[in-house]
Design brief:
This protein has 155 residues and is an alpha+beta fold. The chain folds into 2 domains: 96 residues, Jelly Rolls, CATH 2.60.120.510; 50 residues, no CATH class. It has 3 helices and 9 strands; from the N terminus they run E-E-E-E-E-E-E-E-E-H-H-H. Strands 1, 2, 3, 4, 5, 6, 7, 8 and 9 form a 9-stranded mixed β-sheet that branches. Helix 2 packs antiparallel against helix 3. The protein starts with a strand and ends with a helix. 23% of the residues are buried.
Length: 155
């Protein structure tokens, strides 16, 4: 779990600027707590992409929790003071949600014998391998299974 601390400004009856808490590329369970410095009440708003890839900008009363999607984006917050402006202390806790990751399509393909692969299976495996470093054991296994498939189809 990672914790992020930030300072923000809540304008008087107008939202202050968006403050980026983190840039993320994997699903996270995010808890944000905002505390105004002084007696002014604040309205809070977060900005992130959810698990369905939809942009969300919910308002919250000072504490909120949500799960982000598996998309590269920034998690941001902004604040509005009522009736006066104020500084705001922000604490965000980020917890990876690895248990929610979907099983890759290539993982299903490689459980079957190469002799049962279709051209679509080969395409799936090739797409899965794109961008993986060559030291990745899954990459190496997929590459070897591709070679076997092509050898069988050439005969």
């Amino acid at each position: 779990m990672a914790q992020i601390y930030a300072k923000a400004y809540a304008g008087p009856r107008i939202f202050g600027p968006w403050v980026t808490l983190t840039y993320q590329i994997t699903p996270l369970l995010v808890t944000i707590e905002a505390t105004p410095l002084g007696g002014t009440a604040i309205q809070c708003q977060a900005r992130y992409y959810d698990e369905g890839g939809n942009l969300r900008e919910p308002f919250f009363p000072g504490i909120t929790q949500f799960v982000t999607g598996n998309y590269a984006h920034n998690i941001r917050v902004r604040f509005r003071g009522e009736p006066l402006g104020t500084a705001v202390d922000v604490v965000a806790e980020l917890l990876p949600v690895s248990s929610r990751r979907q099983k890759s399509a290539a993982a299903d393909v490689i459980t079957r014998p190469v002799s049962q692969w279709t051209p679509g299976d080969v395409r799936t495996v090739m797409l899965e391998r794109m961008g993986r470093p060559s030291s990745d054991p899954l990459h190496d296994r997929l590459a070897e299974m591709e070679r076997q498939w092509f050898r069988q189809t050439d005969n």
